[in-house]
Design brief:
Layout (H helix, E strand, L loop, with lengths): L7 E4 L2 E2 L6 E2 L13 E5 L8 E6 L4 E7 L2 E6 L4 E6 L4 E5 L4 E5 L6 E6 L8 E2 L2 H7 L5
Antiparallel strand pairs: 1-9, 2-3, 4-11, 5-10, 5-12, 6-9, 6-11, 7-8, 7-10
The protein binds thymidine-5'-diphosphate.
Length: 138
């Protein structure tokens, strides 16, 4: 069972240049899974919240390509909030972590790399169901 301790910020390579910075990821590094899908969230109206679910199997890696937003992570026992606002840092989130995204700045672009193609069956969209799937005890 994963905990929010397994979720972590990973620094990405950054090639500084007078012409502008360049950052990249490659298969398997430093994102700790093989990327099968990429999607991005943008044009988020002020005050809106995204996410609000967990995944049975899916692992994800979040990058703030522009602007900033907060990711709240919840493993059923503990919560933590991670703010993303730099394009050369990403947040790795393992499966079975409830998450939501909020406090999007104007023009924020959240890119998410995912370990699997889209599957609605992988979502846990009901928080009570999620809590029941988390093992009890320490
Ligand atoms: P959802 O994952 O619920 O959004 P978020 O967690 O970012 O708030 O997805 C919203 C809708 O988009 C839902 O109908 C499923 C669809 N969708 C896809 O078709 N493919 C995808 O890769 C993703 C992430 C979502």
């Amino acid at each position: 069972m994963n905990t929010i301790r397994e979720a972590r910020i990973i620094q990405l390579p950054k090639i500084p240049d007078d012409r502008g910075n360049l950052t990249f990821v490659e298969a398997g590094r430093p994102v700790p899974f093989i990327i099968q899908r990429t999607y991005w969230i943008y044009d988020v109206p002020g005050g809106e919240v995204r996410g609000g679910h967990a995944y049975r199997e899916l692992q994800e890696f979040f990058v703030a390509l522009s602007g900033s937003f907060d990711v709240t992570l919840d493993d059923g026992k503990e919560r933590k909030v991670v703010s993303l606002n730099r394009s050369h840092f990403g947040l790795y989130v393992p499966n079975m972590i409830w998450r939501h995204l909020e406090n999007f700045s104007t023009n924020a672009v959240c890119m998410i790399m995912a370990s699997m193609t889209y599957s609605e069956k992988d979502y846990i969209r009901d928080y009570e169901s999620f809590i029941h799937m988390v093992p009890k005890g320490e």
